[in-house]
Write a structure and sequence with these properties.
This protein has 269 residues and is mainly β. 0% of the residues lie in helices and 68% in strands. The chain folds into 2 domains: 3-149, ntegrin, alpha v. Chain A, domain 3 (Immunoglobulin-like), CATH 2.60.40.1510; 154-268, Sandwich (Immunoglobulin-like), CATH 2.60.40. Strands 15, 17, 19, 20, 21, 23 and 24 form a 7-stranded mixed β-sheet that branches. Strands 5-13-12-7-10-9 form a 6-stranded mixed β-sheet, with no helix packed on it. β23 and β24 (259-268) form a beta hairpin.
Length: 269
C-alpha cells in the first residue's frame, strides 16, 4: 500500500479574514485533507489507479463531503491535468480551464457528499501526480499518484541468403530484432545454434559475437528503444548435404520465456 507524507494547508474562516495554517499529514493509499470554517467542515479525498500503461485510460475520482454542522457556500473543486495525461471528459458539469478541470458546486449542505470523476488518457512513461483542491471560504487539497509504464514487444526475425547452397559454399543469416513496443528493451542477448551440416565463418552485429562449438553468442545489447532495430549477421559454410535448421534464441530482461526462431536452408552436393 502506498504511503504519502504531505503538508496540507488549512484556512480557517474568521470575521476578519482568513488565517492560513499548515501541518504534516500521513495517509495510506491516497491523501485526505480537511478545511474548517466553524460550522461547515469540508473534506476532500482523491483516488487514482494503482498502475496504467501507455495509451490506456485512467479515471481520477474525487469525493467532497461536508462533515460540519452548517452549509458550505460557493464550493469550487479544481483538479489539475498532469503532464503526459490527455483530458477526455469530466462528469457533473466539470469544465476544462487550461490545465485544470473546474466544478462549481455552489452550496454543500451539512452531511452532503459529491463524487466527481475525470477521465484521461496516459500518453507517456512517467509517474502521474494528480491533485484536487476544494475551496469555499477555506481550502484543502488531496493528492494521489501512480506509475505509467510501457510494454517492450520484441520481434525476432531470421532470413538466409542465398538459399539453397552447394556444399562448400557460404551463406549469411541476417537476424533482425525490432522493439515494436512502447518501453525500452534491456539486456537483449542473442545466441545462434548451427546444425551439424554447417560450420561457423564469421559474425557481426551491434555487439561482439563469439563462436564455441556449434553456438554463436553475442554480448547482450544494453538497450533497444521503442521502434528501434538491431541487426546481426552470422556467416556459415555448408559442409554436408541436408535440409538444415539454423536456430536463433533471444533473451532479455522483459521476456520470461526465451524467444526462438528457426530458419531452414537446403544444402546440396
Amino acid at each position: 500500500m502506498k504511503r504519502f507524507n504531505v503538508s496540507i494547508p488549512l484556512a480557517v474562516c474568521s470575521m476578519v479574514g482568513l488565517i492560513g495554517l499548515s501541518w504534516p499529514l500521513s495517509v495510506h493509499g491516497g491523501t485526505e485533507a480537511v478545511a474548517t470554517t466553524g460550522s461547515p467542515m469540508v473534506e476532500i479525498t482523491k483516488r487514482c489507479p494503482n498502475l496504467r500503461y501507455i495509451g490506456r485510460d485512467a479515471a481520477f475520482e474525487i469525493v467532497v463531503t461536508n462533515r460540519g454542522t452548517g452549509p458550505a457556500m460557493n464550493v469550487t473543486v479544481t483538479d489539475n491535468i498532469p503532464s503526459g495525461v490527455e483530458f477526455i471528459s469530466a462528469d457533473n458539469g466539470g469544465q476544462r480551464s487550461g490545465s485544470n478541470v473546474v466544478w462549481r458546486l455552489g452550496t454543500l449542505q451539512a452531511g452532503q457528499s459529491q463524487t466527481l470523476t475525470v477521465n484521461a488518457r496516459c500518453n507517456k512513461i512517467t509517474t502521474v501526480r494528480n491533485a484536487a483542491t476544494v475551496t469555499y471560504c477555506a481550502e484543502a487539497t488531496a493528492v494521489c499518484e501512480f506509475p505509467v509504464r510501457g510494454i517492450p514487444a520484441i520481434l525476432l526475425e531470421c532470413v538466409d541468403d542465398p538459399d539453397p547452397i552447394e556444399v562448400g559454399s557460404q551463406l549469411t543469416y541476417t537476424i533482425i530484432v525490432t522493439n515494436q513496443g512502447t518501453e525500452t528493451g534491456t539486456n537483449i542477448a542473442i545466441q545462434c545454434t548451427l546444425p551439424p551440416e554447417q560450420e561457423f565463418v564469421k559474425a557481426a552485429g551491434p555487439t561482439d559475437g563469439t563462436s564455441a562449438g556449434k553456438d554463436v553468442t553475442f554480448t547482450p545489447l544494453a538497450t533497444l528503444p521503442p521502434k528501434a532495430k538491431a541487426v546481426y549477421a552470422v556467416t556459415v559454410r555448408g559442409i554436408s548435404a541436408a535440409d538444415s535448421r539454423f536456430r536463433v534464441t533471444l533473451k532479455s530482461d522483459q521476456t520470461d520465456t526465451p524467444v526462438m526462431e528457426t530458419e531452414s536452408t537446403h544444402i546440396y552436393e
